[in-house]
Write a structure and sequence with these properties.
The structure is a homodimer of 191-residue chains. The first copy, chain A, is built from nine helices and no strands. By secondary structure, chain A is mainly alpha-helical. Chain A folds into two domains: 47 residues, Homeodomain-like (Arc Repressor Mutant, subunit A), CATH 1.10.10; 130 residues, Tetracycline Repressor, domain 2 (Orthogonal Bundle). Chains A and B meet through helix 5, helix 7, helix 8 and helix 9 of A and helix 5, helix 7, helix 8 and helix 9 of B. Chain A binds a DNA duplex (30 and 30 nucleotides) through helix 3.
Amino acid sequence: MPRWPEDSRRRLVDAALVLFDKDGYTATTVDDIAARAGVTARTFFRYFPDKDEVLFADDDELLPLMLDTIATSTGPVSAGVLMDQVLVGLAQTIEPARVSLRRRQQIIDSELSLTGRELAKQARWQKEIAAALVSRGFEATASAVLSSIGFALFRSQMLEWLEAEDGVSLADRVKRALPKVRTVLDESTNR
Amino acid sequence: MPRWPEDSRRRLVDAALVLFDKDGYTATTVDDIAARAGVTARTFFRYFPDKDEVLFADDDELLPLMLDTIATSTGPVSAGVLMDQVLVGLAQTIEPARVSLRRRQQIIDSELSLTGRELAKQARWQKEIAAALVSRGFEATASAVLSSIGFALFRSQMLEWLEAEDGVSLADRVKRALPKVRTVLDESTNR
DNA sequence: AGAAGTGATGTCAGAAGCTGTCATAACTTC
DNA sequence: GAAGTTATGACAGCTTCTGACATCACTTCT
């Protein structure tokens, strides 16, 4: 429970989203964001290491959740089932934030560098999840492959979910994703 | 066959790789690179839109190759087979450059922003390949999923290939990757 | 209540990335 | 050899990001 803190941070995030949405990412300077939040640019960089991160800072809370899913899972399960649990848990966590996530994704898609940042973050998750699977005794390459395609699938499902209006939850989409791969693969070897 | 051109560009790339390797990415300034190549920083930015791109500029030649694979494929094949051909072709193309690619990957891994750039480029490929599959008459979601996991797999295999010393070619690794997914998946539903 | 401490913020200075503009020199072409 | 093209240099300026130090608000201890 700090004195003024967290308040500035929240205002900076809000200001950034509004301005990026209104004027575009490159067109809005850090000074603009800081001014709208009532602080200095220097303060902005105290909360966020760079201009991009104001869009992704909240994501950092998600990795511990995912790692926790793996660490606290009980009983003998396959790596695939664990990965499934991780992704469904992730889906359920972000599910309520759909509208703001969609706005954010529009901004991200408008700038290639932001897409890169998003994917880099996901790549870090991917590595950590794979490592967590390994530390639970699963084989290294299988863990890497699983984590790799798991996140690739999650992302494609998330993008669909953000766009779609059919009301199908992200968790449901994710649950259907892995079997869907199997279908595609069965077709793929069908010379 | 330009007058002086291409020569400066080549020298800039070489200088950048040497300096990034020697002093680290952030520590070497664009001025350093330009100086070593015998030109001005302004000239650097005429060849490359930003400092990152000097590491990735050559990759742009690869996309046309991949799209060509899809466009010129004859006979009725499944999307999966096509995707397989694309990735194996890509693997064979970059195969000879292994040593320089490994040095490059070390630099990329040292900086999160570079990883982002690498993945952003791959994301663009992914979208274009998916679009090419669609234009060959394949279903949209299947194309997207296939392209998505295809590149995820390719990347994980490439990273293994760069590290490994077992002499197994990248193309072979890629060929084994898709079946490997199937194995992992079979295990994954095996509650 | 007053002193001392802590943490958030402001101010200032500066490096590095990147862009626009114009000049110039090298080289080609007619 | 005149005209046109092109790579490059030379500034000048903006934006992102960092380090150093000052200051102000609020807390805690006495």
